[in-house]
Design goal:
The protein has 152 residues and is an alpha+beta fold. It has three helices and four strands. It is extended, with a radius of gyration of 18 Å.
């Protein structure tokens, strides 16, 4: 059941990506896929629930074909960075708000890092959504979806 849910979520995200015309659509897709992946991991962390569901083989094959096409498009895009493609991207947060609890206190993870609402990145790219910041001063090498990360 959990794998079927993940397959459905990723398929819906890819369909949305294909229709999305916004400049930040790649970022939104990335956020959505990470959110789906982390939801799946949380759901199966202690095992599977045992429920079963049927999947149509033609639907699975179509989804895998779409996933492959998206992957190949990403590879073609990375080839533009030749001779050495980047292994990750670093974005500088230009503006953000702290996520606060009902008492107005900034929420933090176990290591004391704040949960933030990113308002914009370096070159003025608008990024709606909430992120759990893992950063060193002015950069975010990666973002980990958590409780406060809304679905796209």
């Amino acid at each position: 059941m959990e794998a079927a849910t993940l397959l459905h979520q990723l398929g819906a995200l890819l369909a949305h990506f294909d229709q999305d015309q916004r400049a930040d659509r790649a970022f939104r897709h990335w956020v959505g896929t990470i959110t789906a992946r982390e939801s799946y991991r949380a759901a199966v962390r202690l095992g599977f629930d045992g429920q079963e569901t049927g999947l149509d083989l033609a639907d699975v094959a179509a989804a895998l074909t779409r996933f492959r096409a998206k992957l190949l498009a990403g590879i073609r895009q990375a080839e533009g960075y030749a001779p050495t493609p980047p292994t990750y991207f670093v974005h500088q947060v230009a503006d953000y708000d702290l996520i606060r609890n009902e008492a107005g206190e900034a929420l933090r993870d176990a290591k004391g890092r704040p949960f933030i609402q990113i308002r914009s990145l370096g070159a003025g790219a608008h990024v709606p959504g909430t992120a759990h910041a893992i950063f060193e001063y002015r950069t975010i090498p990666c973002a980990v979806p958590g409780t406060f990360w809304p679905p796209i």
